[in-house]
Amino acid sequence: MKKRSQLADQIRSAKPIVGPWMSIPHPIVAEALAQTGVDFLLLDGEHAPVPPYVLGTLLPSVELYELPVIYRVCANRTELIKAALDHGVAGVMVPMISSPGEAESAVAAAKYAPLGKRGVGAWRASNYYVDEAAYMATANTLTSIILQIETKEAMQALDEIAAVPGVDALYVGPADLAMSMGLKHGADGALHPAFLDACARVADAARKNGIAAGIDVASLEYVRAYRDMGFSILTYGADFNFILSGGREAQRSLKAMLV
């Protein structure tokens, strides 16, 4: 419960929080990332081999350090959202939300009645039902729902999506949003005036509706611009990137000393 409350409070405070992506489904990776000084860990179930059923083996390693975990489901499907929450994640990220109806479906899957249609059975989240009453009494308030804005259709319905009750944050997926807008993926798209305007619109819609805005940071050069727009949830880097960049730098340093 502390982890869920921590994440919900941080998101609603609009103060900046940062976290990396985790794509390697192994407890050792989870435990190592949890010690890097981040505010949350984002487990990727959409573009990485992290299905909901492995959360039971990953979450204990992160919980050793009382670090909140957000899980990105593969798709906006009730069974995926429900499974992640029943395992005990503090929040879910739902990709490719393009309409208020899709936003409402995501929220309904994550909330208990009367706010939604989540089924009762939070086996691990409720400490194997030992704390079921306390969990269910607070789950609707303390479980964070983050919706990804990644399409031009979403941009056309931005205010309506942001206004859906139960949504805690809008999160820009830069690569997909840029491509949906007909822009190149990468630095050219990320710096295109039309893309920057879209990002500002997402942050503004979130602010007007009293929710947070998040974005993935491809380069540290973009951070100040994103903060000035109003983004407060920032993801940067991934486990495999850290291995590759750290390993390459270590080998370059070693080889340089042998010349």
From TrEMBL:
It comes from Caballeronia udeis. Residues 21-240 form the HpcH/HpaI aldolase/citrate lyase domain. It holds the Pfam family HpcH_HpaI. Belongs to the HpcH/HpaI aldolase family. Signal peptide: none annotated. PANTHER family: 2-KETO-3-DEOXY-L-RHAMNONATE ALDOLASE, PHOSPHOENOLPYRUVATE CARBOXYLASE FAMILY PROTEIN. Keywords: Lyase, Metal-binding. GO terms for molecular function: aldehyde-lyase activity; metal ion binding. It comes from the Bacteria. The keyword Lyase applies. This is 2-dehydro-3-deoxyglucarate aldolase. GO terms for cellular component: cytoplasm.
